């Protein structure tokens, strides 16, 4: 495997991805990601010098509209699926001591 | 008359002629679900009561002359990644095991306005990440042609439900082949329209620059009729395209004289099963006999589509799936120490292995220091792939090839080697990267009795050429019907 993923890298990816990985899962993730990157490295066979990266297939950029309110107070619906709520607000674990 | 054997358009015509009631159609299909579900498991949720209640309302609107369209009264199944108001929507993930949307996807609303009756939500790969429907958190779906095989994925439940007559048609979504490949494995018609044709509003996002909703149907006529209904310009989806040419049923013309069809030589070079190759080339010959001009050509860059796709799709997925944090909806871990721990535990417990794999890969390719080397590189390769298609469509109206290199693999044989599974998407993925329309239509069977699919690819906004070619092919091919016990 050409791409060796270090412990530091996989820990960093865990932070970015907000995932909690056990020791065993980390080892598997290192292997899987290394193999995928080896495969993705195939793209380096292509010379892309001077090629514009294409994020959208059609020549459109920003889609503008008038800033008009079209919805009303939708709090009840918005909160309906919350795992925890209090007084019409989302409730989360304490973040500030 | 066996109601279940009717196509969607045929059923609506019978209902209109008062030969069948909407309730009879709904009860027939609910009976079939009762009979088949235990074995096949096409659905995550079946809404019996809702469907029966809705049948009465739709019948009334038809009788009053308020509903006259070609889908009025037809029962439909919807992939479980499209929001349905007041109906459980799981994306086949544990992290959405309790999510009841308060609104419906625009495509679903379009169907309801046309008088379709929603039966329930079909099984899929978790968050549409997979090619077999085996990554679902709610069990595997089996291929109705042979229950030891997968139905394909990620819209495997939708494809299986259509061929098992557990619905008259279904909606699926296609990010890298997720409509066309299961359609191929299950012997039904499936179409991914041009990017922007069907609103993505209410479709739970996977790779937003690639995702499109489309129909899975019993034949090409149904496919055109349904696409015509669900296509719309929607200001709620900023990538929605305003089109005037969505009268797709006008293209149901049995004529391919002079149609220029290109067959990419590089689609047949390696990895393709001989039986698939034979069936696809035989289909090309049939079109040639009907007057199409069929030529081989070199498309180029075929083997670069998969690595480019997995980079882009994983990057977009890692960003899109950040919203699942246990705060606003869905699953939340039972015990945690503080907010960040809650996020991490919720996501680690709520997502399956394949989803985590793609989120991690996506986080990595977007991270500083690797962004240029991986993500930007993939977007540049995407530009090259689009250019290769542009050049091909200067010469051809339609590109013809296989949907997948093989027929449906056995259950349990794919997930152990992700890269091998990804390679199965080689013919479908580039179509998403270039935003093009593609249709899958059954063109034969292998010796094991599993269906083979033919793929037709069109230039952007040229669905009509695809529908016309597919329709002409279907007329020449004749019926492709799964017999009981087959």
Structure description:
The complex is a heterodimer of chains A (97) and B (486). By secondary structure, chain A is mostly helical. Chain A has a two-stranded antiparallel sheet. Chain A is built from three helices and two strands, in the order αααββ. Chain A is flat. Helices cover 39% and strands 13% of the residues of chain B. Chain B has an eleven-stranded mixed β-sheet with strand order 1-3-2-4-6-5-10-11-9-7-8, with helices on both faces. Chain B is globular, with a radius of gyration of 21 Å. The two termini of chain B are 21 Å apart. The mean pLDDT of chain B is 96.
A few lines on this structure:
Chain A is mainly alpha-helical and 97 residues long. Helices cover 35% and strands 4% of the residues of chain A. Chain B contains 15 helices and eleven strands.
Percent of residues of chain B in beta strands? Answer: 5-15%
Structural class of chain B: alpha/beta
Total helices of chain A: the number is 3
Q: Give helix % range of chain B.
A: 25-40%
Report on the biggest sheet of chain B.
11 strands, mixed
Write down the Rg of chain B: 21 Å
Q: Share of helix among residues of chain A?
A: 25-40%
List its traits.
heterodimer; A: 97 residues; mainly alpha; 3 helices; B: 486 residues; alpha/beta; 15 helices; 11 strands; globular
Outline the fold blueprint.
The complex is a heterodimer of chains A (97) and B (486).
Chain A: H1 7-17, H2 23-40, H3 75-79, E1 85-86, E2 89-90
Antiparallel strand pairs in A: 1-2
Chain B: H1 8-16, H2 22-40, E1 43-46, H3 48-63, E2 75-79, H4 106-113, E3 117-122, H5 156-163, E4 169-174, H6 180-186, E5 189-192, E6 212-217, H7 220-230, E7 260-264, H8 274-289, E8 293-297, H9 305-320, H10 338-350, H11 353-366, H12 371-395, E9 398-402, H13 418-423, H14 429-433, E10 438-445, E11 451-458, H15 463-477
Parallel strand pairs in B: 2-3, 2-4, 7-8, 7-9
Antiparallel strand pairs in B: 1-3, 4-6, 5-6, 5-10, 9-11, 10-11
Helix pairs in contact in B: 2-3, 5-6, 7-15, 9-11, 9-12
């Amino acid at each position: 495997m050409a791409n060796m993923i270090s412990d530091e890298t996989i820990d960093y990816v865990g932070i970015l991805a907000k995932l909690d990985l056990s020791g065993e899962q980390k080892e598997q993730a290192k292997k899987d990601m290394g193999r995928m990157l080896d495969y993705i490295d195939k793209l380096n066979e292509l010379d892309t010098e001077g090629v514009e990266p294409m994020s959208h297939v059609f020549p459109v950029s920003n889609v503008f509209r008038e800033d008009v309110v079209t919805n009303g107070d939708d709090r009840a619906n918005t909160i309906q699926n919350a795992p925890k709520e209090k007084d019409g607000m989302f409730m989360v674990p304490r973040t500030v001591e | 008359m066996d109601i279940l054997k009717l196509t969607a358009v045929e059923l609506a015509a019978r209902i209109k002629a008062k030969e069948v009631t909407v309730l009879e159609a709904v009860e027939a299909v609910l009976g079939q679900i009762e009979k088949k579900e235990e074995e096949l498991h096409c659905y995550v949720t079946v809404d019996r009561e809702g469907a029966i209640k809705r049948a009465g309302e739709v019948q009334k609107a038809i009788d009053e002359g308020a509903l006259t369209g070609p889908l009025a009264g037809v029962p439909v199944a919807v992939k479980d990644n499209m929001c349905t108001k007041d109906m459980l929507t799981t994306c086949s993930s544990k992290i959405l095991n309790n999510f009841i949307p308060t609104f419906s996807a625009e495509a679903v609303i379009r169907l309801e306005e046309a008088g379709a009756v929603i039966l329930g939500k079909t099984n899929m790969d978790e968050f549409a990440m997979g090619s077999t429907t085996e990554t679902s958190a709610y069990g595997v779906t089996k291929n109705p042609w042979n229950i030891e095989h997968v139905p394909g994925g990620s819209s495997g439940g939708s494809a299986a439900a259509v061929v098992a007559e557990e619905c008259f048609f279904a909606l699926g979504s296609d990010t890298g082949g997720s409509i066309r490949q299961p359609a191929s494995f299950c012997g039904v018609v499936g179409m991914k329209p041009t990017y922007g044709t069907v609103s993505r509003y209410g479709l739970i996002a996977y790779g937003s620059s690639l995702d499109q909703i489309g129909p899975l149907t019993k034949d090409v006529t149904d496919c055109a009729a349904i696409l015509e209904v669900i296509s719309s310009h929607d200001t709620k989806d900023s990538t929605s395209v305003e089109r005037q040419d969505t009268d797709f049923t006008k293209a149901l013309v049995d004529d391919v004289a002079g149609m220029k069809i290109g067959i990419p030589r590089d689609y047949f070079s390696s990895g393709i099963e001989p039986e698939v190759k034979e069936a696809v080339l035989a289909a090309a010959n049939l079109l040639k006999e009907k007057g199409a001009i069929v030529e081989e050509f070199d498309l180029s860059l075929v083997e670069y589509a998969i690595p480019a796709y997995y980079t882009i799709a994983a990057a977009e997925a890692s960003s899109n799936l950040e919203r699942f944090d246990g705060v606003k909806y869905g699953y939340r871990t039972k015990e945690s120490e503080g907010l960040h721990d809650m996020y991490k535990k919720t996501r680690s417990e709520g997502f399956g292995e394949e989803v985590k794999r793609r989120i991690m890969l996506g986080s990595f390719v977007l991270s500083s220091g690797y962004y240029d080397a991986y993500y930007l590189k993939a977007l540049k390769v995407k530009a090259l792939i689009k250019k290769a298609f542009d050049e091909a469509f200067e010469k051809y109206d339609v590109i013809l090839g296989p949907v997948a290199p093989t027929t449906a693999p056995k259950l349990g044989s794919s997930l152990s080697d992700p890269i091998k599974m990804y390679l199965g998407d080689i013919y479908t993925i580039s179509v998403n990267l270039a935003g093009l329309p593609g249709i899958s239509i059954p063109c034969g069977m292998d010796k094991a009795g599993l269906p083979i699919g033919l793929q037709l690819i069109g230039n952007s906004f040229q669905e009509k050429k695809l529908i016309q070619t597919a329709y002409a092919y279907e007329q020449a091919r004749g019926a492709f019907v799964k017999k009981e016990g087959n």
